[in-house]
Write a structure and sequence with these properties.
Helix content is 75%, strand content 0%. It has eight helices and no strands.
């Protein structure tokens, strides 16, 4: 077997391991939870960290694996829950929104590179994409199950209380992601 083939196989093995580790990290961060209408967790921090450290492609795959594990019933979501019913619930749009956040971050990485300011901006944009998708989903499901609800009410329940904590998480993910990226050498393509 050639050296290049061995290196490629080793690289793919490391990719799978890192993707798995970060999917587990997102799960662990979801279990650190303060229950509210939309639970306060560290999931967003772990999503940002995964993309920051692993790069857009691998980080997005880690987020997708996390959501897929939860969808099939593995209790990886907040409060040790799992199952497709959780995703179909009021707050499931925020879980799906993590995938869109990661994809936005990946797109910005492709367009503008991996500079710290780009990562920070991509995290902010990714967060707002998650908020938009999750809020629209919440309003739709809540209206179907309970009755009409106003956007101001949903923003008061699901977005406004999370703004400051989520910006703190972005700062922490940027700081820690930069340091971990130097330790974990990943060929970001």
């Amino acid at each position: 077997m050639s050296t290049k083939a061995t290196t490629t196989r080793k690289s793919k093995t490391y990719d799978i391991v890192y993707i798995g580790i970060f999917a587990v990290l997102i799960a662990i961060c979801s279990w650190i939870s303060i229950p509210t209408m939309v639970p306060f967790t560290l999931q967003t921090f772990a999503v940002f960290l995964a993309v920051s450290v692993l790069g857009g492609k691998r980080g997005s795959l880690a987020v997708f694996v996390y959501v897929l594990l939860g969808a099939i019933g593995v209790p990886v979501f907040a409060n040790f829950t799992g199952g497709f019913g959780i995703i179909l619930n009021n707050t499931g749009g925020y879980i799906i929104g993590f995938i869109f956040s990661a994809l936005v971050m990946w797109l910005m990485e492709k367009l503008l590179g991996r500079k710290t300011w780009v990562q920070g901006l991509s995290m902010i944009l990714g967060l707002f994409v998650c908020y938009i998708f999750g809020t629209a989903w919440f309003m739709f499901v809540y209206t179907q199950n309970t009755g009409a609800i106003g956007l101001t009410t949903v923003l008061g329940w699901c977005v406004i209380p999370f703004l400051i904590p989520d910006f703190v998480k972005i700062g922490l993910a940027l700081a820690l992601g930069g340091r971990l990226s130097k330790i974990i050498k990943i060929d970001n393509d």
